[in-house]
Amino acid sequence: MSELDQLYLDDLDVGQRFTSGSYVMEAARIKEFAAEFDPQPFHLEEAAAEVSIFKGLAASGWHTAAVAMRLLVNGGLPFANGIVGLGGEIAWPKPTRPGDTLHVESEIVEITPSRSKPQQGIVTVRSTMLNQSAEPVYLLTAKLLVLRRPM
Amino acid sequence: MSELDQLYLDDLDVGQRFTSGSYVMEAARIKEFAAEFDPQPFHLEEAAAEVSIFKGLAASGWHTAAVAMRLLVNGGLPFANGIVGLGGEIAWPKPTRPGDTLHVESEIVEITPSRSKPQQGIVTVRSTMLNQSAEPVYLLTAKLLVLRRPM
Question: What is the predicted ipTM?
């Protein structure tokens, strides 16, 4: 994506939509991520996962969240100053599985210019990660710090 | 932690508190995580980070969130069926930095037994990750699926 496509606060409107590229979850990476950050049996090993509440190997929700961020940063949300989140709401309506092909669709739902800092604002973005069957697997509504175009 | 310390829904009360072990953020891992999941200059390289909004290298918020999960899974929240999150709210009031020593303090804020599934309930847990100066760097209020003690 060229610099011309990078968006500032001035360029954004409520209702504007963005679609990311895609990412394939791999079993080996699911297990490695879990071993480091979320070492629970249903994220680590197929046999244990089969008899768990997930009924099969499932990625850590935090792995899914991290992959969503990768997709947003790599063109899924082309903000000129990057993607700087203050916080938000998350949900995992379904697990992500080995072999899933994931992408993220985002929509701007609110734009609040800062009163005290005229060069910036808070933009609320609702992102939905979908699998290859168009099932939502991860929802993120994030408040992002976005800068105005430099004078 | 022995199996005797593992808690079921029956063992939990609103106001109950838990404290995790600690974890030191390292610059090399901050950069590696960012290269894979959040490749933005302020997470990747000191010089670029110095002139960014973060004024120095900062971990990806998703790296911070993943480390919090590690601390919760490794004894910070000793639920017998593991830590299975449905979703929640997150915030990053301050960045985490190389060398920060982090731990998580959690409190049970709500317990809602399931009406349709008597063997489980939803427990809302408010977790705060603090750095070595007792500054909150990450807040997570999560809805977790917790099972009753088997008969």
Answer: 0.95
